[in-house]
């Protein structure tokens, strides 16, 4: 894409410079809306916008921006996004009145920046019968600003309009004859009273000066104003002070206020505002180059929420609340937390009952644990059983190899239920180290642990465990095991042994003892099942030799195995 006949270098520094300039411009517009003209925060925001645009001309002159509903684009790259504010965002303010592109020329920051800010502020606060943004731009005739717009009926684009040296005249950029424009009835931008200032002489002094339509509009605006959550504006103002003020004490005072608000928001259950404050703090800490005390205070905001005592209270409030926050809100809140929050989170997951709150918190906790797998692995060795159970749930979801050492140590613990859960998680991870740890379950003293180990090995086809499985098949204790354990063992052995295991299985199925007795029927039936899983000619021959056995259980198992191996 080219602009005014020369190539534009699209590079990360160029994109970053334009993003910074548009972000500073949006912040300056917000400062104009919030502060009076003599407020230092307003002046600082405008000066920062001037400085940011001064750096843009080194990488793009002129700067042509495409306008979309919730974003600005430059050279097909998104350089400003304001999806959260919706119809209150800067892109929508331009888009709703038909503007589709905006071209800014060198010198804009010194000649027309404040004028454009005043025009945008006037357009935002305009009444339905007032001029729209395109008309205001046409009348103002800014020398360094060009724009393209579409009519409200969307018939087509209007030509690009540009400022000229003659006030009250706008020309077509394509060389079309100039159009005379009536002089502005109001004072030029920057002159007269500040935008939005109420003057008594603007109002009719008669008793009834509002018609029905005007009264309805005012009522609607009052309802909208009272329905709007001004606490978001307060947070925005505080972070403007933090990012815009040079005085360290002012920044620290604003941060102390934010810290107090965080506690109040948590108490009231306003988790959206807490998440907003933490996001703003994270953004400011990455972008701001301030004194170490300020940077430390910014980093301490999410750390304060991550303290175990605070997190425990938050989880208790969520558990007892009748209103469950949406999952995206909780994930947005928890993503800014520190690793110290993991312990109370996993402890809560270890005892919480199934509920929408639990599902949301579990997803959010998984994201936090995924970023801090080392801390999660340490929690697997915690002395609190509920912490361990919660950590097992997250480890199963993440399937991270970092948890394998902790899970292997759990297999040496006393709680058989935890050992079974640990084997299940190791099976989900399925790394070589995880499957090697699973082998220890073959010789466990608990029946449920052994069965769990057999099933994981069979599912993952872990052939390295065959020697231990063969030892288990040969053990005399197997004769007294229950049927489900025998089936799990022989299925694991038969799924991997191949022809090498046929002699062992054939001996169990067909061989006689010294006194002519055979193995128990259950054991022979399991051996037949394993031979059917081997499914080779050698295995089929062993099954054929037992096809006419007198034992009904064995004969039925052999028949099923032969059908399966056919």
What's this model, at a glance?
The protein is 58% helix and 7% strand.
Structure keywords:
566 residues; two-stranded antiparallel ribbon; 10 strands; 8-stranded antiparallel beta sheet; alpha+beta; 27 helices
Summarize the topology:
Blueprint lengths: L1 E2 L2 E2 L4 H23 L5 H17 L6 E5 L3 E4 L2 E5 L8 H7 L2 E6 L3 H4 L1 H12 L8 H8 L4 E5 L11 E2 L6 E4 L6 E2 L31 H16 L2 H15 L3 H21 L2 H17 L4 H14 L2 H13 L6 H8 L7 H10 L4 H16 L1 H7 L5 H14 L5 H7 L5 H14 L2 H7 L8 H14 L5 H9 L8 H12 L7 H9 L10 H14 L2 H9 L6 H14 L1
Antiparallel strand pairs: 1-2, 3-4, 3-6, 4-5, 6-7, 7-8, 8-9, 9-10
Helix pairs in contact: 1-2, 1-5, 5-6, 8-9, 8-10, 9-10, 9-11, 10-11, 10-13, 12-14, 13-15, 14-15, 14-17, 15-17, 17-19, 18-19, 18-20, 19-20, 19-21, 21-23, 22-23, 23-25, 24-25, 24-26, 25-26, 25-27
């Amino acid at each position: 894409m080219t602009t005014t006949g020369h190539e534009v270098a699209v590079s990360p520094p160029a994109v970053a410079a334009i993003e910074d300039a548009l972000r500073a411009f949006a912040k300056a517009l917000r400062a104009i809306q919030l502060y009076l003209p003599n407020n230092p925060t307003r002046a600082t925001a405008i000066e920062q916008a001037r400085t940011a645009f001064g750096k843009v001309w080194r990488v793009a002159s002129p700067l042509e921006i495409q306008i979309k509903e919730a974003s600005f684009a430059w050279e097909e790259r998104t350089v400003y996004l304001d999806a959260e504010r919706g119809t209150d965002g800067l892109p929508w303010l331009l888009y709703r009145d038909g503007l589709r592109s905006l071209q800014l020329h060198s010198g804009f920051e010194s000649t027309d920046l404040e004028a454009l800010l005043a025009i945008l502020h006037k357009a935002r606060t305009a009444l339905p019968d007032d001029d729209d943004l395109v008309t205001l731009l046409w009348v103002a005739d800014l020398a360094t600003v060009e724009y393209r717009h579409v009519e409200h009926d969307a018939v087509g684009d209007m030509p690009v309009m540009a400022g000229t040296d003659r006030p009250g005249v706008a020309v077509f950029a394509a060389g079309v004859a100039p159009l005379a424009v009536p002089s502005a009835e109001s004072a030029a931008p920057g002159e007269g009273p500040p935008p939005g200032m109420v003057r008594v002489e603007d109002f009719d002094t008669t008793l009834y000066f509002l018609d029905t339509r005007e009264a309805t509009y005012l009522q609607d605006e009052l309802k909208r104003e009272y329905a709007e959550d001004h606490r978001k504006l307060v947070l925005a103002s505080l972070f403007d002070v933090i990012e815009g003020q040079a005085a360290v004490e002012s920044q620290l005072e604003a941060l102390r206020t934010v810290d107090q608000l965080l506690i109040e928001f948590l108490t009231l259950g306003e988790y959206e505002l807490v998440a907003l404050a933490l996001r703003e703090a994270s953004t400011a800490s990455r972008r701001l180059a301030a004194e170490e005390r300020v940077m430390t205070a910014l980093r301490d905001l999410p750390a304060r929420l991550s303290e175990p005592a605070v997190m425990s209270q938050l989880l208790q409030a969520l558990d007892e609340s009748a209103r469950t926050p949406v999952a995206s809100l909780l994930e947005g809140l928890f993503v800014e937390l520190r690793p110290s929050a993991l312990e109370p989170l996993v402890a809560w997951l270890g005892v919480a009952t199934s509920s929408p709150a639990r599902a949301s918190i579990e997803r959010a906790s998984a994201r936090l644990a995924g970023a801090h797998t080392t801390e999660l692995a340490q929690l697997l060795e915690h002395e609190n059983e509920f912490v361990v159970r919660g950590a097992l749930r997250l480890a199963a979801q993440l399937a991270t190899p970092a948890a394998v050492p902790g899970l292997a140590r759990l297999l040496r613990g006393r709680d058989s239920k935890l050992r079974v859960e640990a084997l299940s998680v190791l099976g989900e991870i399925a790394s070589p180290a995880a499957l090697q740890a699973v082998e220890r379950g073959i010789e466990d003293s608990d029946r449920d642990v052994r069965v769990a180990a057999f099933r994981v090995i069979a599912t993952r086809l872990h052939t390295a465990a065959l020697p231990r499985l063969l030892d288990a098949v040969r053990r005399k204790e197997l004769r007294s095991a229950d049927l489900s354990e025998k089936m799990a063992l022989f299925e694991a052995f038969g799924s991997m042994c191949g022809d090498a295991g046929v002699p062992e299985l054939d001996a169990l199925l067909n061989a006689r003892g010294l006194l002519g007795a055979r193995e128990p029927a259950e054991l022979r039936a399991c051996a037949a099942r394993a031979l059917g899983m081997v499914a080779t000619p050698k295995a089929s021959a062993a099954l054929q030799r037992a096809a006419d056995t007198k034992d009904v259980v064995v004969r039925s198992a052999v028949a099923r195995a032969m059908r399966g191996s056919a």
